[in-house]
Design a protein that fits this description.
2 copies of one chain form a homodimer. The first copy, chain A, contains 6 helices and 11 strands. By secondary structure, the first copy, chain A, is an alpha+beta fold. Chain A binds a DNA duplex (30 and 30 nucleotides) through helix 5.
Chain lengths: ~220, ~220
DNA sequence: CGGGCCTTTGAGCCGCATCAAGCTTAGTGG
DNA sequence: CCACTAAGCTTGATGCGGCTCAAAGGCCCG
């Protein structure tokens, strides 16, 4: 039940306007928030985080990676035992939940923006359920790469991008092992569907083929 | 993109009050709603439905079973290709989406009820992601039986209940095959953890043991 | 009593996990 | 600039859980 505990928050609580404050976390694996009702709603400004569920015996699942623009801490139920951890240096904008609720009540535009964001998240989760329930390792990996490509900031050409997370994180997101993820990526590289100049740098050589694989054709 | 197409709606559109109307569907496999922006929000009054995603090659996934009290059609994103199908005779209360939005804007209590309901749904989906990503067949089945037991209407003693859905539906919800579901249930019966007087009637003989299995202990 | 559907049970196989080395990269200190 | 180390990634060999294929067993309804 750790709330916004940072091992090293660089700039704690400096409000740019009345409601929000900016918080930064440096280094990997910083636990930002875990379970319970949180006092804050966060918006990711920079960096990447992971939303982690843990089983008692150590099995781990990552339900989602949080990228710039994403909200979190808004709709998380008390009982679900999950935490949010930074996997790179991160800058968050933090809103008091009370202010946020009040703001939502007055501001229909914000309300719709939040509902749309939640709707997107729900759709993504539903896709992920299908992925975990019915797709094989190759299909999962292809779909994941495309999701990551589409999440890249606009400034960058999404044909080519860096994965922000380790093989272990990818495996725990896709319900696979690091070995399987590695093998599938190697196979996609050997078939010239992706380029892999370094372990985290991805080039989409045949996007259409990758899309077909991710959708379960072929 | 079929919206509220019923093969046999018994009582179409009889408004009990200004906003809502009651709709009934008889027979199984009736498609109630599929993809796209729907004009209505539904609340389940009686019966059970399934929320289905389909892949082009026929692979199927059921992300959720809808039971009395559940809302749907509220937060479903346009692009996700899923449908909602009745698996028993069903009575739904249908609200116009426009009215619903307006009502939500004015009524903080309703707004919080809806947010809470969405929060519950999100937590359930997160649990399901962990289940599909990291649990084995026995753990999935145990967790599923407990979920179903806890969803029973209060009038019925949840130690003992009827499954509303077929083995195929259970399999498609748990990312397994009908054969595996059947085998796991048989094994749980032989270990006297559940009773199975008929194929759809479940008796929880050792709830604690089942909980331990479902959580991944043992 | 017969036919169709759902469920159960069995036999064999396959995809991914597990176990076990190597390899690459980054960081650290001499 | 080069050991040295540690962590992460890749690759190979083997095993197993759940899928596939097949058939038999219940149940419902005419």
């Amino acid at each position: 039940m750790v709330i916004a505990r940072a091992s090293s928050p660089v700039h704690p609580a400096q409000p740019p306007n009345g409601n929000a404050s900016t918080v930064r976390y440096v280094g990997a694996d910083t636990v930002v928030e875990m379970g319970g009702q949180t006092a804050y709603v966060y918006n990711v400004a920079q960096g990447t985080l992971r939303k982690v569920s843990l089983m008692r015996d150590g099995r781990r699942h990552i339900s989602r990676f949080l990228c710039p623009g994403d909200f979190f801490g808004f709709m998380d139920a008390p009982e679900s035992a999950h935490s949010v951890e930074a996997i790179s240096d991160v800058t968050l904008v933090r809103y008091s939940r009370l202010n946020f609720d009040a703001l939502m009540a007055r501001d229909p535009a914000l309300r719709h923006r939040i509902l749309a964001s939640m709707s997107d998240e729900l759709a993504a989760m539903q896709e992920q359920l299908l992925l975990l329930g019915r797709k094989n390792a190759r299909e999962r990996t292809a779909a994941f790469l495309l999701t990551m490509a589409n999440r890249e900031p606009q400034g960058r050409y999404s044909r080519e991008f860096d994965l922000q997370m380790s093989r272990a994180d990818i495996a725990d997101h896709l319900g696979l092992t690091i070995e399987t993820v590695s093998r599938v990526l190697t196979r996609l590289r050997k078939r010239r569907i992706i380029g892999l100049p370094s372990s985290k740098h991805i080039v989409l050589l045949k996007r259409r083929a990758l899309e077909a694989i991710g959708a379960g054709a072929i």
